[in-house]
Write a structure and sequence with these properties.
about 130 residues; three-stranded antiparallel sheet; about 10% strand
Length: about 130
Amino acid sequence: MNDNGSKFYYSRLTDGEKNLYDRICEALLRFEPALSLHAGMGKAFTVDTGKIMTAVLFDNPVFFYLNRHRVIVKQTPMYIQLIFQYDYTKEEAEQLWAEVERKVDLFIKNRIKPDMSPLAKQLSVHIRIASR
C-alpha cells in the first residue's frame, strides 16, 4: 500500500518529531503491534505523541486500518511505547486499499479529462463525493 499524498503536517514538525513520525509510519506499514523508542544516554525526554499521531493520520489516509482511538501511549522519562490496535488484518486492509485505488482510477478515467482546469477537476470530485 502506498500513499504519495502531501505531508503538510509532517512539514510543521520539528526534526525530532519528524524522526518519530517516520518511525511510527514504518511500524504501521508493517502492522507491528507496538513501537518502543528509547532516549538513550540517560537523557530524559518528553514528546507530544498526540500531535505526532495526528500528523501521521492526517497525512496518511492509507493508515485507515489503525483504530486511532485505541492507541495506548506509555511514556516515562526514558522511553515511549506506542501500542497499536488495528481494525483490519493486513490482508483485509490491502484488499480494501486496492478497492479504493480501483474506484479512484475508474473515476479519473471516466470523469477527469486532460483538458479540464484544476478547478473543474476539484468540482468534479466534490460533486461525486457530495452525491454519495
